[in-house]
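Schema walkthrough. Field components (list of strings):
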Amino acid sequence: MTRRIGLAACQMGPVQSGTSRAEVVGRLIAMLERAAAGGAALAVFPELAFSTFFPRSEIADETLLDSFYEDGFPNVETAPLLYAARRLNIGFAIGFAELIRDGGEARRFNSMALVDRSGTLRGLYRKIHVPGSEAPEPGVTVHLERRYFAPGDLGFPVFDLDGVRVGLALCNDRRWPETYRMLCLNGAEVVLIGYNTPLYLDEAPALAHLRMFHNHLPMQAGAYQNTLWVAAAAKAGLEDGQALIGGSCIIAPSGEMAALAISLQDEVIVHCADLDLIAACRRVNFDFARYRRPDQYRRIAEA
Amino acid sequence: MTRRIGLAACQMGPVQSGTSRAEVVGRLIAMLERAAAGGAALAVFPELAFSTFFPRSEIADETLLDSFYEDGFPNVETAPLLYAARRLNIGFAIGFAELIRDGGEARRFNSMALVDRSGTLRGLYRKIHVPGSEAPEPGVTVHLERRYFAPGDLGFPVFDLDGVRVGLALCNDRRWPETYRMLCLNGAEVVLIGYNTPLYLDEAPALAHLRMFHNHLPMQAGAYQNTLWVAAAAKAGLEDGQALIGGSCIIAPSGEMAALAISLQDEVIVHCADLDLIAACRRVNFDFARYRRPDQYRRIAEA
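Field assembly_structure (string):
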């Protein structure tokens, strides 16, 4: 019997500063309902889904900064999303700003939570490839992820969800071939990605027309080169004055685009993913046990 | 001043069994002349350019098998190509079957030679990712590279040609992200690739319409993710009854297709490559020293 799983990518329109968690969570639940109605068993939401993409701003006020983070996940404001998952019998992954208070020390990560169909938190991923800078740089669009987030320290975990092996990645991670390869070697069959990608960068005005190409190219290559399903959800549209690209998509292990968002708003795309395609595609060029040459790749893992 | 180099990809139509080296070398020299006339300083020819793609056949006769290999490179039959390079002031890379006789022991590699503008052999690459099998397998198109060639043992070398750092790769290597990453970390600015790719595979009839997509996707991703120039040359057309795809191309560090062959015959495409684009593209997402996480990639280099 063919193994299948319904995948949904839940693209979000912008979340302007000051929008309440309750309003955002309401939008997310509405999308989860559409995903479940469309036959999805697993949905992905964007990176930093509960708020505006705040690393585009220099935020001096600690209380304001903290307001963008989840102090514990789930918490009282985000728990309704997990109850909805249980009610709808659908799992999901969602990006959020993670704040941990270890005694007096605050630790902050750009994280993604994976919740199963029973509404249970199954695990976390913390973004490995944190882009941007710690302080604004001349001529470069402000992007302070490296001030607001520590580098991920959980590796590239893969979770078993009802027999389907699921890996997670966030935004800039999707540009790096190592992300897909590590997830593949760790056993992933499906990779869920959330992202926020500005259309314009001051440091690369001549590349603006290529932003969507540079969004899809590494994800399609990652799917093909590792024979994985990829589902990726963007936050899109004009958010606090910054244009974010959409292009949320579901990509087959052949690298083919199986579903693609066509708006810059809240939009749910669903594809019933044939997991047997993974083995079929792997047989052609990517029998890893037979053909990989790890002894030749040492420099990739050397500092 | 902008650093530029004229790159040429010299696609070859088929080389049927029994074609003499003299005839093939004549075709290659004619293409080298067109490349030089078009402003190229560096050209790439296909994998196993001097003969038919013989791994598609089971060859029991040792003398016949040996006839496909170069016993030393350059040799009396291939040297005219190096003289032409010197005369035309153009360097080139070319794929060939390499036979080494160490005492009584024969060693065989699927290799690529790099020759500079003075017609001097500068170095060799030996294919790292050798595909296919050692014996025919049921239901699978015969592809005996693993019988006829040992796995490459020279790593991913990068050569300095008049101040431009050049890496080499062959056919199946181009599907593996590790190839580009290793060459990038070894300092390559330009990657020259030769390939022979059948359109139909018995083991994957449903993927035939994707063969060109699967040709370009990993090369464009490899160029983008490592901000390299890629020039790739196919052997194309109906060769000894097997249809080979063309699609020879020159790809910018942005992943954009800068030039693309439009035939299945001998065809030369040229692009004057701006090497400063490498730094411009790297600045956006791929400041490797700042953003790579090699400590997180260990499994990639572990057997």
